[in-house]
Predict the 3D structure of the following.
Amino acid sequence: MTQQTILEEILRTKRDEITSLTLFRKALEAQVVGAPPLRGFEVSLQRPSEVSVIAEFKRRSPSAGDINPYAQVAGQASVYEAAGAAAISILTDQTYFGGSLEDLRSAREAVGVPLLRKDFILETVQLYEARAAGADAILLIARALTDNRMRELLDLSGELGLAALVEAHDESDIDKALEGGARLIGVNARDLASFEVDFEQALRLIESLPSSVVAVAESGISSPEDAAAAGSAGADAILVGGWLMKGDPQSGVESLVGHPRRPRSGEMEPSTMGNDTV
């Protein structure tokens, strides 16, 4: 089975799951009314002089296999928060990543930082599901969505108060995200077709992002030096999962926090920025 087929299989599986989920749409919409207050995901990532850390919880992945299959989300998330993570990403896909919405709910009870639901979001019903389960933000993968569907999901996420991190891998994905009105763009160093990682290309793409968006470096980060390189490229935040799940999460996050961030083209230097930018 090729890696391209794995990606296609993931999306087919997710569409089947969504078909069943649509039966509960009305109930999910009702649950949103009583959902917990939102925490500011976008604001949490904007620290003008340093790179923020989004620490990720995932037990396995199609590219790496089992990473930490017996990890407990509440304890791991608490360690992430104590070590200085600005936000936490929770994989909620069960079949391929070993996650669940229950993981998201458990993390919500355990920590006070914003939570990103990381999954394959293809339909609007999943946004209601995410908001009802306690997510503050959701991930949208540009390559998995048509232009119209991306705009639809971005519009509804805004209505629900959810931040939307749009994941891109190349210039075409970035153009789609910008045209759709994305405010947060994550550049994934891992190609979703081949699963190969090109961190240097990702940094070049981050440097090219307009100053109006929050830029997140995703994948390929496995050392403090990588975090520093992301900051030098102008990344507002880094999203790190596998490396933290395989090692000591406390010292891992601590080593990633506090690296200087260089403003991207068109941005004012931190010393000249007003408080309203934070």
